[in-house]
Specification:
Elements lengths: L31 H6 L1 E5 L2 E18 L9 E17 L3 E13 L11 E13 L7 E9 L21 E9 L3 E10 L17 E10 L3 E17 L2 E17 L3 E14 L2 E15 L8 E9 L9 E2 L23 E10 L5 E11 L7 E2 L5 E3 L8 E13 L4 E12 L1 H6 L6 E11 L1
Organism: Pedobacter paludis
Pfam family, one: Alginate_exp
Protein name: Alginate export domain-containing protein
């Protein structure tokens, strides 16, 4: 499970492949590739097809990955194969289907569904546009679909994993030039590692309203509400049914030199017999030194994420990140976004239009000394009330990303995690962990 650095602008493929539009190729030179990306079979009514896909191969090496000394060397070969097709009928109807195969080999550990899902239907939905105005869309989407909102802190497709996240249900979108509002009721499907064996629940467990407002001069906003329900969740205080509501706002802007990304969220609801009251605040600031060689960008990210104050007070203060992207805190993240304070400076260099280097430092503390630490998915990992230590550890990261051409890219990443006092307290035979990966990706 790895995080891929943000692709350079030469990459024209979208994170969600169904968001790509190839209608402009109707007037281009009709090469085989252009016909593959856009073919119109009839004009009245208009019937068009588009095809695409991905092959991604990765070699990942982990050493003492769970901070346990002498756990030693482990490696795995990860491959992801994806093929999709879109069909447009007139201006109202669209069908999109995507098959995905995620395979893992070589690891001595039991296979995880984040790494292996031999064959599944990743997307299968029908769109219908109720609007007749050219500058407006009122789009109803029914079926299995991927989601990725904002910076991916709460709802993400989890592209860093070998197997991506998806949901099944209904989504209604209102789309204008600078405004998009989504309202949805969805079920997070249960993933199994075999062939077409994933299960869909009839009961929705993720619902909400997400707005995206683009203001050219003043910046951009996401204002949203998310509701989530889980029959069984675990925290330091125990296990139980969880019903959680999230209210949040995000502001971001990118200018020629400055970059801002500010986000805050508050959560309330019920966990068993406990009342939920949790919050998070994230700040990211960056500056591009355009006058210098390699156009270095120096950035600083700072997160405050609440943890439980007292397991006996009938209140739960642990933040739940719901469905976050796995690589928010590293390529092979070991700490999840709950009960956490982190300071994360990083430097990005662009030696050329195709090449990107990045160096990161991530310092992690527990927000509450009465709460433990969590997995990157947000699930509970290690209890913490037995230790008075706050400092968890430090992550050192180095990555390189090279865009060979518009279809092919290669990346390298190295991560070293130095354990802090808290991990030494709760893991008697603790050790620093190491991670290395190289990944080759082909998209068409």
């Amino acid at each position: 499970m790895v995080f891929i650095p943000k692709k350079m602008q030469a990459q024209h493929f979208m994170l969600l492949r169904f968001e790509e539009d190839y209608h402009h190729l109707s007037d281009s030179t009709r090469s085989f590739y252009n016909r593959l990306k856009y073919s119109q079979l009839s004009s009245n009514p208009a019937l068009s097809f588009s095809f695409g896909g991905e092959i991604r191969s990765e070699w990942a090496v982990k050493v003492d990955e769970n901070w346990i000394a002498n756990e030693g060397f482990n490696h795995s070969f990860l491959n992801r194969y994806s093929l999709h097709a879109g069909v447009n009928y007139g201006k109202k109807y669209r069908l999109f289907v995507q098959l995905n195969s995620s395979l893992e080999n070589g690891s001595r550990n039991a296979v995880s569904t984040t790494d292996e899902d031999k064959l599944n239907v990743q997307n299968l939905f029908l769109d219908y546009d109720f609007s007749s105005a050219p500058a407006l869309k009122l789009l109803l989407r029914i079926g299995r679909q991927e989601l990725d909102y904002g910076s991916g802190r709460l709802v993400s497709v989890k592209d860093g994993n070998n197997s991506r996240q998806y949901f099944t249900g209904l989504k209604l979108s209102y789309i204008k030039s600078r405004l998009k509002i989504d309202a949805f009721v969805l079920a997070a499907d249960k993933t199994h590692p075999g062939l077409f064996d994933n299960k869909t629940k009839i009961q929705g467990n993720l619902w909400g309203v997400y707005s995206d407002v683009r203001l050219a001069e003043t910046g951009n906003f996401n204002i949203y509400y998310l509701g989530a329900m889980r029959e069984q969740s675990q925290f330091e205080s125990g296990m139980g049914r969880e019903l959680r509501h999230t209210l949040a706002i995000r502001y971001w802007k990118e200018s020629n030199r400055f970059r801002y990304n500010l986000e805050t969220a508050y959560q309330f609801g019920k966990f068993g017999q406990n009342e939920i009251s949790a919050w998070t605040m994230a700040i990211e600031l960056g500056y591009v030194f355009k006058q210098l060689k390699f156009k270095p960008t120096l950035s600083l990210r700072n997160d405050y994420i609440s943890g439980d104050k007292n397991i006996l007070d009938k209140k739960l203060n642990s933040f739940n990140p719901l469905y976050p992207k796995g690589g928010y805190f590293g390529f092979n993240p070991l700490i999840g976004p709950s009960n956490l304070i982190d300071v994360h400076p990083f430097l990005t260099l662009h030696p050329s239009e195709k090449l990107l280097f990045q160096v990161d430092l991530v310092y992690n503390w527990r927000y509450s000394l009465q709460d433990g630490i969590f997995h990157p998915s947000g699930s509970f990992n290690i209890g913490g009330s037995s230790s008075p230590a706050r400092y968890i550890g430090t992550t050192y990261l180095w990555s390189a990303d090279y865009q060979i051409n518009k279809y092919l890219s290669i990346s390298f990443g190295y991560q070293f995690y130095r354990v802090g006092r808290f991990l030494r307290d709760v893991i008697p035979n603790s050790a620093n962990s190491k991670f290395f990966n190289t990944q080759l990706s082909f998209k068409f």
